[in-house]
Amino acid sequence: MKNVLDIFEERGFLEQTTDIQMLHDLLKTPTTCYIGFDPTASSFHVGNLLCIMALVHMQQNGHRPIAVIGGGTGLVGDPSGKTETRPIMTREQIDQNGEALKQQLSRFISFDRGNALMVNNADWLATLNYIEFLRDIGRHFSVNRMLAAESYRARLDTGLSFIEFNYMLLQAYDFLHLFRHYDCRIQMGGNDQWGNILAGADLVRRVENETVHALTFPLLTTSSGIKMGKTHKGAIWLDPELTTPYEYYQYWINQDDQDVARFLALFTFLPMDEVRRLARLEGADKRKAKEILAYEATVICHGKVSADASRQAARQLFGKGTSVSASSIPLYSMDRDILAKGIPAYLLFEKAGLCKTRGEARRLISQGGGYVNEERITAFDQVIDSRDMDNDSLLLRAGKKRYRKITTG
């Protein structure tokens, strides 16, 4: 079986590691690794997907992943990559979110027969005795060294609370706890966690005289510089109730041509020879590569049935027909009386969420980018009313790829 570290390197997962040869040798035999996940929302989003895919690769290659729900550290708040203090959540909120994340992660990783574990660090952090913790753990940390870490140094000008300052110690203690109880020898995470992960590896070395390893992934942005998973509407969630499978599919198919090969390697399980073949496609054929990316990513997240329906809906929309099931296309419901009286096109586009502002809607339509039932709207204030409805609905399109189906209630 191929070494998973080679797979990570070939597919673009690696950013930084501790001794790479030692890590490669360690991964020749079944090894336990972990990644921590923030429980501040009830769903993962696309920004979490790289870490989730890494855990899947680890399991597929014979290793045991541990997903740590940060119920304890979530009560403190990680300052890494943040410009201000996070709001403190209650234990009840964190537990509710943690349970939802457990269910979601089960779609990606098999927890049968102990092949993977899911734990909540509140189980061991919430019961710590503070004096004992300072004596046994805190004494191994240098304040000067902590302040040199990028996650802390970047916050010194805007203010770093003492509770956040403790975060590195708590995450380091997680690694020590997981090493002691599960023989966990690798912590993985985004590259903004490098300092925290190294602190944990150093703590295990100091306390247990054992070598454990750190591995980080790149912090992904699209070719346009936008953080992965962010759109004009907000985050792209993995929960189908928050982001429908069709919207999820469209997120991937709308990626820039320059990103397709990279995302095929990271977010699908296609063989790399196939990824390289798709990367060589040019012109109109590039759409085929995007469709494969969108389909494979949606299968992994939402299953084949939802992926098939989303692909079919997209193909119909990009063809001549406009008959698409309501379950596949993002919907906007409006009052029947409002549509009967008529509404200017730019207001409808703004209300339906196709444009963030009325000004943006005016510009879009004035430049020829607004459509109703696949007919171009000729003026931004063109009135759209119930006479425009086709089969009790309207199909709006903004530009080439963004759609809304308007229904009345």
Give a description of the structure.
About 2% of the residues have low confidence. The protein is of the alpha/beta class and 409 residues long. α15 packs antiparallel against α16. It is built from 19 helices and 15 strands. It is elongated, with a radius of gyration of 24 Å. It has a 6-stranded mixed sheet with strand order 1-6-5-2-3-4, with helices on both faces. The protein has a 5-stranded mixed sheet with strand order 9-15-14-11-12. The protein has 3 domains: 214 residues, Rossmann fold; 75 residues, Orthogonal Bundle (Tyrosyl-Transfer RNA Synthetase), CATH 1.10.240; 78 residues, RNA-binding S4 domain (Structural Genomics Hypothetical 15.5 Kd Protein In mrcA-pckA Intergenic Region, Chain A), CATH 3.10.290.10.
Name the descriptors:
six-stranded mixed sheet, Tyrosyl-Transfer RNA Synthetase, Rossmann fold, 409 residues, 19 helices, five-stranded mixed sheet, 3 domains, alpha/beta, single chain, Structural Genomics Hypothetical 15.5 Kd Protein In mrcA-pckA Intergenic Region, Chain A
A few lines on this structure:
This protein has 409 residues and is of the alpha/beta class. The chain has 19 helices and 15 strands.
Secondary-structure map:
Layout: H1 4-11, E1 16-17, H2 20-26, E2 32-37, H3 49-60, E3 64-69, H4 91-105, E4 117-120, H5 122-125, H6 130-136, H7 143-148, H8 150-153, H9 162-165, H10 167-182, E5 184-190, H11 194-208, E6 213-217, E7 230-231, E8 234-235, H12 245-253, H13 260-267, H14 272-279, H15 286-302, H16 304-318, E9 331-334, H17 336-341, E10 343-344, H18 345-351, H19 358-366, E11 370-372, E12 375-376, E13 383-384, E14 394-398, E15 402-408
Parallel strand pairs: 2-3, 2-5, 3-4, 5-6, 9-15
Antiparallel strand pairs: 1-6, 7-8, 10-13, 11-12, 11-14, 14-15
Helix pairs in contact: 10-11, 12-15, 12-16, 13-14, 13-15, 15-16, 18-19
